[in-house]
Every structure is written in structure tokens, then in C-alpha cells.
Amino acid sequence: MAKFKELPNKLPRPPGELQELERAWKIPGGFRLISAVNNQVIGILYVGAAFLFFILAGILGLIMRTQLAVPENDLVGQDFYNQIFTVHGTTMMFLFAVPVVEALGVMLLPQMLAARDLPFPRLSAFAIWAYIVGGLVFFSTVFYDLAPKGGWFMYPPLTLKEYSPGDNADFWLLGIGFIEISAIAGAIEIIVGTLRTRPPGMSLTRMPIFAWAMLIFAAMIMIAFPAVILATMLLEIERSFGWPFFTAERGGDPLLWQHLFWFFGHPEVYIIFLPAAGLVSMIVPTMARHPLVGYRLIVVALIGTGFFSFGLWVHHMFTTGIPSLSLGFFSAASMAVAIPSGIQVFSWIATIASSKERFRITTPSLFVLGFLFIFTVGGVTGVMVALVPIDFQVHDTYFVVAHFHYVLIGGMVFPLFATFYYWIPAFSRNMLSERLGRWVFWLMFIGFNVTFFPMHMAGLLGMPRRVRTYPDGLGWNALNMVSTVGSYILAAGVALFVIDLFLRFRPTIDKSVDDPWKAGTLEWLPTGAYSTRSIPFVTSRDPLWDQPNLAREVEEGRHFLPGAPTGGRETIVTSPVDARPQYIIRMPGPGWSQLVAAVFMAAAFLLLTIKAVAIALVCAVISIGACIFWGWKLDHGPGKGEVDIGAGIKLPTYMAGPKSHAWWAMVVLMLVASSLYIAYVFSYLYLWIVSPEVWAPRGSPDLPGAGWPIGTAFLVIAGTIAMALTRPMLPIPGRREPAVPPLIALAAGCLVAAFLAELWGHLSTGLRPAENSYGAMVYMASVLNFQLVFACFILAAFAIARYLTGRLDRERRVTYENAALLYYYAAAQMLFGLVLVHGFPRLAG
Amino acid sequence: MRRGAGRVVLLSIASALSGCSGVQSALSPSGVEALRIDPLFWTATGVSVAVTLMVVVLMALALYGPLRWRSWLGGDRVIIGGGVVLPIVVLTGLFIYGLFVMQAGAVRSAREGEATVTIIGKLWWWEVVYQGPDGEEIVSANELRLPAGRPVRLRLESDNVIHSFWAPQIAGKLDMIPGRTNEVVVEATAPGISRGQCAEYCGGAHALMAFYVVAMAPDEYDAWLAREAGPAPEPLTEGEARGRQVFLENGCGGCHQVRGTEARGRIGPDLTHVGSRMSLAAGMMPNDVDAFARWIVENQHIKPENKMPPFRQFGEEELTALAAYLDSLE
């Protein structure tokens, strides 16, 4: 975008403009605060909830350390110990680490991008409430002996009904599976947010590193989480209905779980680490008063880490007896991922060295320096465990416990505390105490190393992980005692931080400390509930450094969109690469529908856990009803015309088609669905490789005749044509076109019929899902199709209702487009499924 | 004390070992596989320490070094040199060394012809099945005897959940996975005793699932195996005979096998020569009369959730006799 000779908007601003902006973005008061959707409000709630889980899981860690302080200790019983180590790991990974970085994204990204909010504010609120309710119920199981005890990795057969009767494991599968859905909702939000709501002029090459990191983070969630969602579905279905995905006697394989779990689980580590590294890349330049050295290299490194991280999962399975050729490949990939981390470490060192005068030693910089040391140690031990023969010895020992705590606490918790000290001024009337902060740092740094360094040695001396106790006389006593003492020092550091928080943290929207560190990025602009008064035109990577009057200009309303011209909440949507303004997105304000949807969705999942199916279904219906109500208020249509955002730029206030944010979100959702399906295809082929003897036609009834899949494919194609034909039939605004509802209904009907035909075909051959892994896999395809058919059915009915009430026409058509996009994806998946399920056994058999 | 002599020797070695700390240590290798991993481990450790020190020194220079050094450190070449070139060189070297070590083990395991021992992970103990000279099965439990200097093929299996067999002094670990058989060839270099433990979390009493590895001179091993193949010794004293009666009358044989009697159960550990083993309850207790008595009554306290019910119905006399009988099964 060309530079402007003068600022986009002139002074003086019209009277009432600021008041209008404030009115539009007003945060509901009192108990209505829970209906708020402003990212600052729900962001604080989100971070707070995640931090609460960190404390809770940390307390479980302290209990474990206390139990292990001396050999043959009887403080904690075996069953309870197995529950708390499972809940400690599960909570830290699923309820703390991923949510807290996603929370920082919700909280910081709109400020860094000077957007008024994320593009789907209610979706974030939904994800957050679902997570809080689901997470608290999950964690509370530890209080009444219902907590899962299969380890956070939940390997079958241990977690199958036979070895884990009771509902404990189901709490993990349904509770965590549900929270993963909330993580995916957040990821969709973050992808569309970073790509489409940047301020004018902030091309991708000027995007703050944290935004880059969050973009890659969200893309990785999109690919990785579906694998574990599929795994939890398979395991829960095997537990509930006996479909043998993991039972070796009936053609399943326990290793299938490990492949799916670690295909998620290894990228998970980088999913946690990348945003933390992004935060460090923001703090270091500020403290050095110098732009980040090697910005482009860091971006390449982040992308490289994301890419490599999907090629390493087998390094968690080196001891499962996999052939040495694969071991070599995965060993090499595991070591290669050290390179992008190395690039980042040296970039930070180079930036520190480039400091104007000297690098400022503040509490955030102490945590960053502590992170650099701890993460380096975790990195080099990571290279050690990537060496297959060394892993044969140290795998599943305390050496690995030490290694991943160095990586995760060093790589993520220390940057998180740096973040707290660094960014709290942007959301609070006070900074945190620099004096207490130093104590917090040194207690945590010393406590951490004293706790976890001796574990390397304990592991080498033969101490396995996940043991409630250990015998005297193996040389582990002193090491364990030291670790326990260290854990209390670490806990004291965290406790002191909580005290600091109570003393000094006073959340506020508009009275926060202004830019105490003299940083260069947009989150330090003065803000209100509406974010910045006007949306800045950005011309560099560190706008506050390079555009010295920017804060004043923005505050005076001289940049873009200084008011609320449509009378409601809105922000500018820009093009994904070079951030040219495209249209104004009108966003919903406070509301109850997302809250009701989240709470009842959580209730539905948790009630399923205890097999209260009927009440669970009622809750699910209420939740879906709330979602429909919520969706009904969206898709405003072009009624507000165009608005002037400044510099003579007039933007439409409605957008359909590939430029619209809804279209982008739908595409991301389709990518998530296809990741899930690819994981399914992998599982199908994997079980075939393991147990070809149960596959049709040899080990199972013959497939239904070719007429079945051909007929099904015909239905799918016919429905797709009907859906596509609807598009040109949409009437111009104000007119009617009676063919629209029947066409959409026909499309939906074809999809349902195709789904039923496929199911009926297999049932008629006598194939049953519980018989063997082949049957289970064939019917699993229908389970996955069912989700899509159900969603398409609801979206189709919704589109028809919108048409009948005059809310769907040629202009106002986002509702139709969303339904059609999902429909085309569903059709493609079903057609592919037909080729796989009907074609593959015929070819291979 | 004819029968007890061997055990006294073993026990004294074990107690000597329990004083030092290496009995389950990967850093005191005494098997060919473990010995091969050892130098790789120390090399990688040395590289790790060097890299960490380098980063710390560079950080200190970046923070407090003279301006000239700092401006040298502040450029892209440091990033390329330290973040790309250095790791590629160091990691390639380590990787190739690691491949050689791994390949040596893989080649060895691919060879044929060694004696085979099948170890089956149970909840929470180990069934150990030796192959006699004529291929017959010799069932034992919770202890692995190896002929020093002779390679032995271990076949690792499970019929329940996943376990992992790990004897750190002898070799790295390998998982026992239902539906699969994993194989590794191991070789103890000299006679001696070490300890191992289940390394894959297997629920319940995972922490209490250990075993001893006893490496013996090859001729002693052969003699031991011949003895192990035979039936249980007949009771020598009246008490032991009474103990056998108690054993058989109370249904112990439903789960346990004592070859040479009608006790034929295969659910629990084979007890034919239980008295000659280093430990009871999979490495959890010493092997003596008192321990047998305690285990029979208090096993759910000693190893919670294990599959054996506590037998509290025995009177003092019955329990003493039963313990004496079991202790006599050498």
C-alpha cells in the first residue's frame, strides 16, 4: 500500500464519535460480565483459568514428589498415585499448556494487530466456557476417586474395559476429547484473526513474531489434534461397544493408538513451545532496545519446526520393536528439529548482543535468560534421547522426565512468567513488583534445577517413570530427596508470584500502564474496550519505534476507522498477505447463546461419561438449539452500505464469497475435518497391514455388490449438483424463487440417503463392527460420515429457514455458502470413503 | 544345609551389591548391548555439556562482553554459524555413530541359532520360559539366568497390557506388546547379579514389577538348567510334607504349578523351584520362610491389586508348614 502524504483522518473529530465507539464496545457490568465477549475480558478469564489448572496440577506434582522423597513410602496409596500422575500430566498438557498459549493469543493478538477484537468473538467465548466447565469437572474427578489412571498417554490395552473397568478412563476420553474441540475452535479463530484482521499496511513481513508463532501454532493444532480426536473416538467406541480397534486377538493393534497419539503428541510439544518462543522474540528486542536480529530466519525456523514436528512421532516408540530402518529415519528427523531451535537461540543471543547500551535486566529478561539456559539443556538432552541406542536405555525413565520438564517448563513456563511480568502492565493499573519478581525468578530457577537436574541421574541409575515407590539400596534415595526439596523451592517461587499478583494486579481496560518498557509493537498503544481509538496505518515491524507520533495520532482518531459507523462492533478486514483494507466486519456483542451452548455441550459430554445418555441427549439438543439461535443473529446482510474509514477509502460492511471471513473459517474447518479423515485412512491401512487376514474377502463377508457403492456415489453426486444449482437460483434481494427450498432439501436428502445406503449395504452382507478390526473400520467410516451428514442437515435446514424468512438472497448469502462448502467437503469425503472401503479390499484381496 | 549352599552364596553377592548402587544402573554395563551403548552415551553427554557451556559463555558475552565482541555477536553470521552449521556438523557425527551402534545390535538380533528364553509380562510379574536342550519348555518366573559369554535370544511377549523388559546392566529396554513378539539377543560378559524392572506403565502395581538377572559361568548355567528342568524336590521334613498337603488341599494348584505334583495352574508364577530364586513377588521381597508366610497373608498390602487373594484362613501351624514347603522348593 502506498504511503499517505497525510494521516487518513483529519482533526477535529466530529463530536459524539468517541462516545459512539464506547457505547458499541461497552462491557456488560455485574453478573452480566459472563456474557461479555471482548477479547480483553475473556482473555483474562482464559489465562486465569489456565493458570489455576497450572497451580492445581502443580499441587499434584508436589504430592508425588512428597511420596517419592524417601524409599518405600506409604504416604500415598498406589491407586491414588496412579490417578494423580495421570491427572498431573493430562492437566498440564491439555488444561494448562495448550489453553494458556491459546489464551495469550486471544488476549494479545488483537492488541498486537490493533484489531478491535478477534473475528469471531462469540466463538472464543464459547471455546473458553466449554474449556472452563469441562476442565473443572475433569479435574474434580481426582477428589472422588473417579480420575483416570492410565497415564496421560492412555495406552490400550491398559485403558480398555477389561483392564480399566469403571468410568475413570471415560472421563479422560470424553472430557479431554471435548476440550480438544474447544482448542480447535480457538485455532480457527487465531488463523482467521492473524491472516485477516491485521491493520492496514502490516504485510506478513511486518507481522510481529508472536503472531507468526500463533499462526503456525493454530495450523499445527489443525493438523495434529484431529489425530488424537480420532484416537479417543476409537478407544471410547471400543470401550463402549467392543469394536476391536486395539485388541490384537480380533485384528486390532495396541500400537495403532500409539501412532495416532504421538502423531498428535509430539507436535503438541512444539505447539506449546512455538508461541512461547514467539513471546521471547517480542520481549528480547524490547529489553535490547534493538529490532530482532534475524527476523526472517526466525520465521523460517518457526515454519521449519512446525513442518519437522510431524515427522518425529515415532521417537516415542523407539522401544516398541519397530524395524531399524524406520528408527534411523525418525532418529534423523528428531535431531534435525534441533536446527530451527538453534536458529532461534542464536537470534536471541545476537539481539541481546546488539543491545543499545546494555541489555536491560528486568524480571521479564531474567525469565528469558533462565529460559535460554534451561531450554538449551532440554534441547541437548533431547538430542541424546533422539539417538536410538541411548533411548533404549533412558526411555521411560526419570531421565526422560527430567528432559521434558526442561523442555516444557524451560521452554514454556519460564517464557510464560516473563510474559506475565512483561504484559500485565498492558492490562492492569499497576505493574507487578520488580523487587518481588526477582525473588520469584531466583526461587523458580534454583528450585527448578534442583528438582529436575538430579532426575537425569536417577534415570540413568535405573529408576523408571510412573512408579509410586522404589526400594531402598538402588542409589536413588539422595537424588529423590534433593528433587523433592527442589520442588518445594520451585513451589515457593510460584506462591510468591501469586502473592505479587494479589498485591499488584488490578485488571482494567482503559487505565493500564502505558508502555512501561518503551516497546515497539502495537499492543502498547493506548486502548479502551474498543481496543485503539483508531486503527493505525503500519509502515514497519516496530511501528512505535519507527513512527514516533503514532500513539498520539491513534489516540486522536487520525488513523483508520476512528468511530463506529455502523453503530455496532466492527473492525477492518484486510487482505491476507499485504494487508489492504477489504471490508468492515460487523461483530456480535455480549450474548448468552454462546455461554448456554458451551455449558450444555460440556454437560452432554460429561453425562455421557457416566452413561446418563438420555439427559446427555437433552443437553446436546439445548446446546445445538443455542448455537442455532446464535447463528440466526449473524449474517447481517449488506443493509448498512459502505462506510468511509479514512484516506478516502470506502469499504463495504458485508462480504460473501472467498474474501469473507466466514468462508475462510469454513475452509479451515474443512481442513480440520480432512485431517481427521486422513488419520482414519491411515488407521484403516495400518490395521490392514497388521492383520490382512481379517479383511474381506478372506476373513470377513464379501463386500456388497458393486451396485451399492455406485448407487451411493450417484446419490452423493446428485445431491452435490442440487446444492450447486441452488447458487444461481438465489433470488435478487426482495424477490422470491420457490425452487430454492426444495433444491436445498433435495441435496440434504440425497446425503442422508447415501449415508443410509452405505450403512445398509454393509449390514446386509452380515458384517458386524464388533466382529473384527475390519468390520470396525468399515463402520467407523460411517461414524465419521454421520458427523458431517448431521452438520450438513442442520445447516441445510437453517439455510431453508433463512430463505423462508427473507434472510437469504443473491447478496446476503453467507449462510448458503457455508452450508454449500461443508456439503461439498462431505460429498468429497464420502466419495473417497467409497473408493477406500469398496475398492481397496477388491484390489488388495 | 546341602540345598541352601548355593542360595547363601547368591544372597551374599546380592547383599554386597545392595550396598553399592549400580545393581540397576545403566552406567555399570555388564552385557554386550549395554557396553556398546555406554561410550555413545558418554560421547553425547560430552557434546551436550560443551554445547551448553558454549551457549552460556555466548550469553554472558552478549550481556556483558566488550562492545567489539558484542557487535561481532550481533550479526546474521552468528545465527547461521551457531544455529545451522554447528548443529548440522555435530548432529550428523552423533547420528552416524548412533546408527553404527544401533545397526550392530540389529545385525546380532537377526542372526539365528542362540538358545531362546521367552519372557511374558504378567500383571505384575514375569513368566520366564527357558528352552531345554531338546527344545522342551522349562517354566520359571521373575528371574532371568544367563550363561556368561554366550548370546541368548530373548522373546518378549504379553497376554495382557503392554510391559517393557529392561535390565539396564545387560541391554536397553524392549516393549512386550500383546499380539506381537519382540526379540533381542543379549549376552552377559561375566558372572554377576543385576536387577531390572518393568519400564512401561502397566497400571496398578507397575512400580512393584522387578526381577533379577543372574549371569553364571556357562557350565554352572547348564547344570542349573538341568536341575530347573526337573520336578520339584520331595519334602525332606515332616513340616515340609505337611506344607505340601496344605498347598494341595487349599487349591493353590489352581493357579500355581509345582511340577511333580498335581498342582498344574498356569495363572500365577510356576513354583517348582521357587525356593532357589533370588526374590519373591517379582523382586519385592527376600526369598525366605518368613517372606513366604507374609506374602500368603498380606500380599494385597505388599503388592496392592495383584491377582492373588490374601489367604487369611490358615492357622499358625498350617502357615508355617506351607512356608517351609515353598522355601524347600529349590
Automatic annotation (TrEMBL), chain A:
InterPro entries: Cyt_c_oxase-like_su1_dom, Cyt_c_oxase-like_su1_sf, Cyt_C_Oxase_1, Cyt_c_Oxase_su1_BS, Cyt_c_oxidase_su1_bac, Cyt_c_oxidase_su3-like_sf, Cyt_c_oxidase_su3_a-hlx
Membrane topology: Multi-pass membrane protein
Biochemical pathway: Energy metabolism; oxidative phosphorylation
Signal peptide location: none
Entry's EC annotation: 7.1.1.9
Transmembrane segments: 41-64, 84-108, 120-144, 171-197, 209-235, 269-288, 295-315, 327-354, 366-390, 402-424, 436-458, 478-503, 590-608, 614-632, 662-686, 706-726, 738-757, 777-801, 822-840
Catalysed conversion reaction: 4 Fe(II)-[cytochrome c] + O2 + 8 H(+)(in) = 4 Fe(III)-[cytochrome c] + 2 H2O + 4 H(+)(out)
Superkingdom to which the source organism belongs: Bacteria
Cytochrome oxidase subunit I profile domain span: 19-551
One protein family per Pfam: COX1
Keywords of the record: Cell membrane, Copper, Electron transport, Heme, Iron, Membrane, Metal-binding, Respiratory chain, Translocase, Transmembrane, Transmembrane helix, Transport
GO biological process: electron transport coupled proton transport; oxidative phosphorylation; respiratory electron transport chain
Gene3D superfamilies cross-referenced by the UniProt entry: Cytochrome c oxidase, subunit III, four-helix bundle (1.20.120.80), Cytochrome c oxidase-like, subunit I domain (1.20.210.10)
GO terms assigned for molecular function: cytochrome-c oxidase activity; heme binding; metal ion binding
Location in or out of the cell: Cell membrane
Gene Ontology CC terms, in alphabetical order: plasma membrane
PANTHER family recorded: CYTOCHROME BO(3) UBIQUINOL OXIDASE SUBUNIT 1 (PTHR10422:SF35), CYTOCHROME C OXIDASE SUBUNIT 1 (PTHR10422)
NCBIfam families in UniProt: CtaD_CoxA
Family, similarity comment: Belongs to the heme-copper respiratory oxidase family.
Protein name listed in UniProt: cytochrome-c oxidase
Biological source species: Chelativorans sp. (strain BNC1)
Lineage: Bacteria, Pseudomonadati, Pseudomonadota, Alphaproteobacteria, Hyphomicrobiales
